[in-house]
Design a protein that fits this description.
- There is one protein chain.
- The protein is of the alpha+beta class and about 325 residues long.
- The chain has 2 domains: about 150 residues, HIT-like (HIT family, subunit A), CATH 3.30.428; about 170 residues, HIT-like (HIT family, subunit A).
- Helices cover about 25% and strands about 20% of the residues.
- It is built from 6 helices and 14 strands.
- The strands form 3 sheets. Strands 3-5-7-6-11-12-10-9-8 form a 9-stranded antiparallel sheet, sandwiched between helices. Strands 2-1-4 form a 3-stranded antiparallel sheet, with no helix packed on it.
- Helix 1 packs across helix 4 and helix 4 crosses helix 6.
- The radius of gyration is 20 Å and the shape is globular.
- The protein binds zinc ion (3 copies).
- The site of one zinc ion (ZN) has 4 residues, from strand 12.
Amino acid sequence: MADKQVMELRWDPILREWVLVSNIRRFRPWQPTNYCPFCPGGPETGYGWRALILENKYPMLMENPPEPSNHWFYLTAKSVGKCYVVVETPEHNIDDLSDLPTDQIEYVLRMIINKAREESGKDYAYYFLWFRNKGREIGVSLTHPHSQIYVLPFIPSRVEREIESAREYFAKNGKCLFCDVINAEVRDGVRIIYENEHWVSFMPFYSHWPFEVHIYPRRHVQLIMELTDEEVRSLALALKVSLCGLTHLFRSKSMPYILVLHQAPLKGSYPFYHLHIEIYGILREEDKMKYAAGMEVGGGNFTYDAVPEENAQRLRDSVLRNCV
Ligand SMILES: [Zn+2]
Ligand SMILES: [Zn+2]
Ligand SMILES: [Zn+2]
């Protein structure tokens, strides 16, 4: 049993969500600790590139996964999909995505968009999740600037909840819930972090994490492939400024964060959905981390030890001081 390789999706019938199960990472070969697989000149990377999308060598999902186990009671499914690593620059010693020039961030975004377009044609591809983990606190072991893509055979739970809220709101009010959230944030103004012609970045009224930032396109649009060239260009700037404010908020410590792109599923029609990026900065203060613990993980509701309006003011100050 111990040496059996398992890779499958297991259904939690109580919370009604999938768990990605795999013990294949345990078979990862040993590597010297100072070796970086994302630097130029490696067996997978080569030379002469600005950014790269590589297949994750130890994926949770594969195009041709093993057959899932057959359980007499529980439901399982194949871990079919793709896991990619986005190497955002050839330069190893860069702290954050926001330290790259805007045109490099734009280049990375275009690569991700092309990958989404390519994957959307695949049978298994129900969802394209781009995310970025920053900092050792989040468990990032490789410091070379990179993010990840999971092409999933199902819609992730949080997005499913958003879809259901937006569907109901649209049925009841005849308009987009997210558009109304943007309007409320712009009208209040006090939680806005950055705005340009195409994008609005704010700390939501209902923030869960201490320094949570959401970035929305002003235009009601569902998928990143549908963004215009101009929208992609100004997204690069909105991302750069928002992340710069966040990572420079504390003088002696770069903010660890999780960034995720929420967009519509690749299959089906979701005209009431509105794509956006969510960023969760997890430090409350320079030396105080917000842990998701008993209440948050056990109960499912967050506690917020400040008010978002105050933290938005601090983040805006950081943007003005460090990023513009
Ligand atoms: Zn490197
Ligand atoms: Zn909308
Ligand atoms: Zn979202």
